[in-house]
Amino acid sequence: MRLLIVEDNEELADLLAKGLKTAGYQADVLSTVEEARAVLTTTFYAALILDLGLPDGDGLELLRELRQRGNPMPVLVLTARGGLNDRVQGLRRGADDYLVKPFALEELIARLEAQLRRPGQLLGSSLRIANLAFDTQNRQASIDDEPQVLSARETAVLELLMRSKGRVVSKKQVEDHIFGHSGEVASNAVEVYVHRLRKQLSERGARVQVHTIRGVGYLIAEEK
Question: Which of 103, 2, 120 is closest to 51 using CA atoms?
Answer without folding.
Answer: 103
